[in-house]
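Hi, here's the filled form for the chain we discussed.

Project: internal
Contact: R.S.
Residues: 54
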Amino acid sequence: MPRSYHHLGHADRATIMLMHAEGHSLRAIAERLKRSPSTVSRRGATPYQSRPAL
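And the returned structure, exactly as it came back:
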């Protein structure tokens, strides 16, 4: 049976960003959003991590 995939909404991404900034673990964020930790790490925190200036 195929898996069902869903994108994170803006509210979930905002929650991930806020909780990440507050120092919560990926596991704690995932539990709060009822998502897997791998989803949070792949889709949530990565785009918001600071990158060095060019």
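Let me know if anything looks off before we file it.
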